[in-house]
Amino acid sequence: MIDFQSKVLERSGIGPEACVPDPIHEIPPNVSFQSAQEEIELVLFTTVQDLLNKHKVHTKNIDILVSNCSLFCPTPSITSMIINKFGFKSNIKSVSLSGMGCSAGMLSISLAKDLLRVHKNSLALVVSMEVLSPNGYKGINKSKLVANVLFRMGGAAILLSNKKQDKKIAKYELKHLVRTHLGSNENAYKCVYQEPDEAGHVGVSLSRELLKVAALSLRTNITTLGSLVLPYSEQIRFAWSEIRRRIQPGGDNNNNQKARYVPNFKKSFEHFCIHAGGKGVIDAIEDSLKLEKEDSEASRMALYRFGNTSSSSLWYELCYLEAKGRVKKGDRVWQIGFGSGFKCNSAVWKCISDIDPSVKNAWSDMIHMYPLEIPQFGC
């Protein structure tokens, strides 16, 4: 099993800096409830404190708090832990999401957006992470061992506001958020699945169908997103290709790709943030969208340096683009998240201010070394 995991790691696109929490380094790993709580305190408490200090926001000014963490759901909740730590006000609207997979970061943004529509003149804080400490798989099932190799520690905190005065200082405006759920499809539902093995060891299985399901969910998602963001010329070409594919013999066959037109999303977006779920995921989405290597650079570099940080990976990628000085006022960013269920969620942001690349973020200390050439291994 060590040989298998070593081979997966060699081909994963993850570099030596990617971090796992201290309890996993112990022999045997410390999978206690306390170690999970300590991981949350280390990641989220630090991230939230840095964000509040950076923007000089007082805790009493936070009106909405949304957290997401798929595999660890304590009582009191993660949002309650944050409220207790920072002393948020008693009438704060708080929600903790669990079991939503790696796409939960976009789900949290969607929920915060809906809450801000209802509660005027409010400030929302969204925090995203995955807890690794209690969730390492101890068995020998290869489909479950892959998750041990890919996931790493990380987290993100985001402030959203509907206050008119905050538009002057905000970096981005949320333009669109499209959610796709393929849970009614049995293959999609089971492609990322938590269950015990024959020996009773619980782990998350990653099916061989995962990349196909991700591509299908993306196609479904962009059918809706395309009508919102693509120029009419691209929409007409895409619609006509779908009509031809359906009326031609064998048009519904997945192998019949000649008639399917892939819209040129580079006409709608300057930047792409693809969930850093693994090298295979990035390759598949890059191929599906007909993107160039430089379009997925932020995703590959985030995967290499930080690993698969689950729902927070998209924010590490956006920070990479900012630290490189590539995001300009007026630019549009497409964040694409995938998660168990199976889900594909897209968020479209428009940059509405001048981004200063010298402002400290997760990449500031090492950005001069990137991009770098990621080692390639044979099959």
Automatic annotation (TrEMBL):
Pathway connected to this protein: Lipid metabolism; fatty acid biosynthesis
Known EC number: 2.3.1.199
Protein name (Swiss-Prot/TrEMBL): very-long-chain 3-oxoacyl-CoA synthase
Domain Beta-ketoacyl-[acyl-carrier-protein] synthase III C-terminal as annotated: residue spans: 269-350
Pfam families found in the cross-reference section: ACP_syn_III_C, FAE1_CUT1_RppA
Segments forming domain FAE: 2-246
Signal peptide location: none
Keyword Acyltransferase recorded: yes
Family: Belongs to the thiolase-like superfamily. Chalcone/stilbene synthases family.
Any GO molecular function: fatty acid elongase activity
InterPro entries named among the record's database cross-references: 3-ktacl-CoA_syn, ACP_syn_III_C, FAE1_typ3_polyketide_synth, Thiolase-like
Membrane spanning residue stretches: none
Keywords: Acyltransferase, Transferase
Lineage of the species this protein comes from: Eukaryota, Viridiplantae, Streptophyta, Embryophyta, Tracheophyta
Catalytic activity: a very-long-chain acyl-CoA + malonyl-CoA + H(+) = a very-long-chain 3-oxoacyl-CoA + CO2 + CoA
GO BP, one annotated term: fatty acid biosynthetic process
The keyword Coiled coil appears for this protein: no
Record-linked Gene3D superfamilies: 3.40.47.10
GO cellular component, one term: membrane
